[in-house]
Amino acid sequence: MRIQSTSEIPYEVYVNPAIYDREMEELFQGPVWHFLGFESALTQEHNYFTTEIAGLPIVVVKDHGTIRAFVNRCIHRGSLLCIAQTGRISEFSCVYHGWTYDLTGQLTGVAFERGIQGQGGMPEDFNKSEQHLRSLTVQNYHGVIFASFDAQIPDFETYVGPDIAAGIRRVLPRRPVLLGRTSQLIHSNWKIYVENNRDSYHASILHSFFTTFKLNRLTQSGGIVINAAGGSHISFSKRKQEVDDATYDAEQLRANKDDFGLKDPRALRFIDEFGDQISLQILTLFPLTVFHQINNSLCVRQVIPRGVDQVEVVWWYYGFEDDSAELQEARLMQINLVGPAGYISMEDGAVGGFVQRNSSYAEGAVGLLKMGGYDHLSSPSRVTEAAIRGFWKQYCDHLGETIV
Ligand code: FES
Ligand SMILES: [Fe+2]
Question: Which residues lie across from 57 on neighbouring strands?
């Protein structure tokens, strides 16, 4: 199967298990950076948390100030090492047969290594010092921990490029702290979900809440920024005029045609906390990470492929330690806008399933990505599919145009 053009994508890419296997091996475990979590979860020495990358269990631990990440898999028979979501340990100890590792991942102990009374035990040629947990390259970027399976990968900022890096720093002016997480299972291939996040064309059409309450219209000033590699992007828009609590009157909480209203306007507040009037920033990182700012809702979406036709999205809502009570309330209220049942984002899960259902028996058919032309360049217009074409460009750079 061949991807001939970034503007014509065969539906087969969403259903073919051989393609999924290649993605798991070569893309996700290749030279790409993945989101793991927040540094603020590791306040004390020897704190750890567990997470995953594309279904591979990962443990992240702090040791003498250094943050390390390992595949959470005992080298003996493959059991999980750390089972809880968070904890504090002085060494890794496997529940299954009791093998132990220090916090650098080095194997330190094998139960009954020398057998009992000269019987059994490990053979002479087994050398603990040669055994190590599989470790990842880790970078702490402004309080967010990223990792890669590739030891040679360029540093995070070089990987994403200066514009995307600036967009991330914009929503990380201080160290982020987790407010809470939600998770949802979407019945589509992971690529349909990450394409959707790069699809600024659909937002004001599919999400009637956006237009009903004037949160995002394509006439608002904004734009699309796409990095040189193609696969990471920012879509942003500005509020026309600063809208704060004082100017929010009942009028603005009514749709033009329909008589929909919100009983509680706090879900729509926008406090211009970054001082640039940008009220919406969707930022994708190739391949599996999304940062969003929707009003004052700040979140990292961790995209976890769960087989060829399912994807889990974990929404890591965050704020900052020094948030005022007002900001914290705004963030918590605005969680209603996003996540699995969000006023805005619930439709994205549904349409992903619609596309997936039509991908199975679509022999030879392609989806069209021609809105805005054929390039994958930054533009002041959001009526474009350039960022999705950029995703496919980088995808093909990693896997080749002939996928299987
Ligand atoms: S699987 Fe871990 S000690 Fe056996
Ligand atoms: Fe959407």
Answer: 52
